[in-house]
Each structure stands twice: as structure tokens, then as C-alpha cells.
Amino acid sequence: MERLFDSLPETSVTIRIDPAASVAPVREALTSIFDTEQVTVTTGSADQAGEVVAVRDGAVVATSPAQSLMESLLLINSDVYITGSRPFAEASLPDVVAALHDIPFRLCGYPASDSEKLLLIAMSRVIERRAYEAGRGTLRVGFQQLSRLVDEPGTYSVYEQLADTDLAVHAYGVDDTALPADLDLTVHAGSSRLHRRGWFVVFQPATASESSTTSGGESRTTSGATAREPVGLFAVERGENDWGGFWSFEPARIEAMTSIIEELTATSVP
Length: 270
Fold this sequence. Notes:
alpha+beta; 270 residues; 10 helices; 13 strands
């Protein structure tokens, strides 16, 4: 697994925050999550294009309102996703957060933090939404425990919708429950470290500009560019509720994620 992290580029990103914006919690959250020499969070200028600006390798690559970062990182908790109170169609991340692709992060969940693990959940929903909008391709998801699919109403609702497309959906995790027979997924149960400790959502589209037809007969055309692009999140629990990971939009890196998942979950040896 670590070879995926070893291959990440040595790029650098500076997050500049408008000094007039009341975003101290955002600064603290980003600094904590990306506690690395590759990311610097600093005060920007009052006349910058957005309240929060991402500068990558010397060039501005994204801007976002401070409020959007507050809402995605701090002002909600994971329950809005787990219960399904936030609609699937609203899953999104601010551009500044998306711009931190291919950079390792570290997240601590409860009890160390109530909010930081939210980024994992939010990024997962963004990828699931992209897969749904594409309608075709392959989606590989690590649940750690397969029971999450049935115990979390919001998650179950999302995967009901995903199963109702022409996507090939592969679910990985410990076999701790019986999944409903009408949930059309390919299940890879096991007890390997990646089964137990892997949090990944990896989408590889089929081909550009394909249309898909749901089992109910409704046609959906993949016209948006993003729905035709691969994206992957790969994270590993290295300690109790302590996650290290990254996300990527790079096709070769996403192919490498897929290879690792298939290799390490091929058997159930811990």
C-alpha cells in the first residue's frame, strides 16, 4: 500500500486566506489535515480573487468562498451523510479542497476529532455522485465493515441508486452482515488489512460520451466532462481512527489504486 504514497509528486501548495474573512477555524482545519511540508496555509492579500486561494507550484489553481470551506469541513457533521439528510445530488467540495489532490493528508476521527473525518465522507460522496452521473464504468469501494451498507440509511440510499445504473459496483469489507439480495453489487468479503482498514472509493469511467439506461428504462447521457474523468480516494487506517490518504484525478495513479486493491484483497489473509 505504501508504494502508492511513495509515488506521489513532490508538489507544493500555498493556501492564501483573505485577512478580512473570519476563517480562523478553516485555517486551523486545513493546517491540521495537511500537516506536511507540501502545504502552507498563510494570510493572503485583501484584493485577492477569492476569500481562499490555492496556489500550486507558483500558479493560482483554485479560489473558493470561505463559507463553502466552513460548510464542507466544519459546520456540519457526518450524520448528514450517514442519515441521508443531505441529498446525494448536493455532494460537492470547494475548488480549493479539490486542488489539494495527490497530496497526502492525515485525518483523526472520534474521540480525537468530531469533524476532520468528515472530509473522507464528503470526498467519498463526491466520487459516488460522479460515478452515478456517468452511469457506466467501475466503482470500487472499501467499507471496512459491509454492515455499513445496511446500517447507514444515507449510504444504503446512495448504493441503491448506484446499483440502478449500468455501473459495475464492487464492495469490499469484512463480511459481518447479509446484504439484501436486491442490492446489485459485487461483494469482495475478506479479512486482509485492506478489507479491514481500507477506505477507498475509486471510479473509472467506461468510455467518453456514453449513455446509460437504468433498469427502470430512464436514459441518462454522460455529457459533463467531469463525469467522464476518473477519480479516486485511497486511505488507510494506520491507528485507531487515524487515517492517512490522498485523492487523485490522474488516470495512471487511479489505475495503480485499482491494481493495489485487486492485489491486496485477492485473498483474506490478514
